[in-house]
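Quick one, probably user error.
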């Protein structure tokens, strides 16, 4: 069986679905899913879903990077948040056609240079062994480097849903995807458009 050549772990037991343990995974890439852990980013009071080290551990499991909570430290939580915001700003710069911030680029590159989880041949196929939380964050950073420096960089989009700050990779054939999720923002937009038409017809 052919295996992925990407450096980012994709275990055969990785969770599926857009919503996993309270986190949103709608972007199609880990490097954009991590920034989604700051909910309501555009509102006056955003909600940080990575409030505690345990939350980070839950995210790493939900992302399919770890089979169980790797028990992050307070410092690793701080570093994960720092990496998260750097990835978000770099992706936003790409969307807006702006230059990358040098400090953000350097930070992501430093993390990408860390040893990533190592692939292992298990009894059921591909598994991953990590050197701890740092190696898992390195995998996210490497995904960011591959995305932001690769051919899909031009396909990064900002969801057009009202108040939604989620970023995603548009892999549609037309390249016209508008929402982070058809089940989420896409459905809300369609409902609002339907109501708007009803109001106009009722005048």
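Nope, works fine. Designed sequence:
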């Amino acid at each position: 069986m052919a295996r992925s050549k990407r450096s980012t772990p994709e275990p055969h037991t990785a969770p599926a679905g857009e919503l996993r343990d309270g986190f949103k995974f709608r972007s199609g890439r880990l490097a954009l899913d991590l920034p989604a852990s700051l909910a309501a980013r555009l509102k006056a009071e955003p909600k940080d879903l990575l409030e505690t080290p345990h939350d980070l551990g839950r995210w790493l499991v939900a992302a399919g990077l770890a089979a169980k909570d790797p028990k992050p430290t307070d410092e690793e939580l701080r570093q994960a948040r720092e990496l998260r915001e750097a990835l978000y700003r770099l992706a936003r710069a790409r969307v807006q056609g702006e230059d990358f911030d040098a400090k953000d680029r350097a930070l992501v590159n430093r993390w990408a240079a860390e040893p990533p989880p190592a692939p292992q041949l298990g009894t059921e196929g591909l598994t991953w062994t990590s050197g701890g939380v740092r190696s898992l964050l390195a995998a996210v950073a490497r995904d960011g480097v591959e995305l932001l420096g690769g051919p899909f960089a031009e396909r990064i989009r900002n969801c057009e849903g009202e108040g939604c700050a989620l970023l995603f990779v548009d892999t549609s054939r037309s390249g016209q995807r508008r929402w982070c999720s058809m089940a989420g923002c896409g459905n809300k937009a369609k409902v609002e458009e339907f109501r708007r038409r009803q109001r106009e017809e009722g005048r």
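The radius of gyration is 18 Å.
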